[in-house]
Amino acid sequence: MRIDVLTLFPEVFEPFLSASIIGRAVEGGSLSVRCVNFRDFAKDTHKSVDDRPFGGGPGMVLMCGPVFDALESVESDAETEPVRVILTPQGELLTQKILTELASKPWLVILCGHYEGFDERIRTGIEAREVSIGDYVLSGGEPAAIVLIDGVARLLPGVLGGEESVEEESFSRGYLEYPQYTRPRDFRGMTVPEVLLSGDHGRIRAWRTEQAKKRTLERRPDLLGDDR
Ligand code: ADE
User: Which atom belonging to ligand 1 lies closest to the Cα atom of 88?
Assistant: First the structure.
């Protein structure tokens, strides 16, 4: 998968893209990420990318020019249409279902907003999916883009150890994760449930399913019965 990220802070992405599972996905060629700075498309000598809002009010607003120019530059060598994603608290709430949909696309272009917001014509003039990572306001779209890239990358074929890890986990099956344990069997008097040491795979599977359902009912009953 190819991902282009349009941002004012490309340096934010560097450590994330070289670490752990995402680092391996990039290294192994399953994922290729390029960060493009809007500021490189500023027109004036001050390299301005934002300005005061018409009508007054606090803060600065990201201007259309650098955003449209950066996007057109990124897409100029395109043979196919990318799926564009704008990160904004006004977007649809990110779910595992949306991540799965995005992970099936060959190319994403992700736009990170900053400052108090962006010129409305960026929203209306660019055909994009608007996505929020939660009902809270961040100072910019960059942490949200990292969340999105992480969630998508781990679904790409070959990125996680076994495809089962994704199938088995929380949310993919509509339930929260069942409890997991590793060595030692007894840690400070806290012991591992006997069933997990039994070697009886049928019983283990049944116990895990029961635990996952119980947890979901207790903690996130809202997840039961919808199609996320
Ligand atoms: N930018 C600022 N806050 C955000 C949020 N909650 N989700 C996505 N992008 C954002």
Answer: 9
